[in-house]
Amino acid sequence: MGIADVRAAFIFSGAGELSLHDAVMQHMGGGAYVLRFTGTHRDGTPFDYLSPSFRNDPEQLAREIAALLVSAHSATALTITAQQKEESMPAPAPIAGLASTLRDHLTQATARADQVARRAKDSVSNLQHVLDAAEGTVQQLDAAAADIQAALGLSTNGGPPLTGSKASES
Questions:
Q1: Where are the domains of the chain?
Q2: CATH architecture under which domain 3-86 falls
């Protein structure tokens, strides 16, 4: 039960679908081991598989891992191939027409949304300018009121208003 036997079991079970670059069997303590296989599938897709810890026959586990890698890759390749076929097949005319109509409407809606966004931005900017001007006017009114209060404060001594009695005495 050496690593050479584990490699041989993996390669044999890969049935030419897997190219093994490295196989490692590591002791984890307590009689448990892990296997790590790295390599590529026939189409060049890399794999790097680390097994969970185990205590049983490493050769049997190597065969199971190879079969798992081949079947998982085959299922993935079939799914990708089916998706590519679906993407490359032209849609029936009514569906293609509907898709084209929907794309056109979406393009128009997107353009309209951009216009509305620009108008909203301009309106908000204009509102900011109007508020700045109003704030400036309020500040001018406050300054004018303060000037008037100050002027009135200088022309009075705080006493009763002057009457014509002083003017008639002189």
A1: 3-86, 90-152
A2: 2-Layer Sandwich (3.30)
Q: Tens digits of per-residue pLDDT, 57-90? A: 999 999 999 998 888 877 666 555 555 555 556 6
Q: In what order do the strands lie in the sheet with 18-29?
A: 18-29, 32-41, 46-50
Supply the pTM of this predicted model. Answer: 0.45
Q: Measured between alpha carbons, how far is 99 from 91 in angstroms, rounded to an integer?
A: 9
Closest CA to 42 of 66, 21, 17: 17
Please name the helix (run of DSSP H) or strand (run of DSSP E) that holds residue 23, with its range, or none.
strand 18-29
Across 4-18, 56-70, 74-88, 122-136, least confident range: 74-88
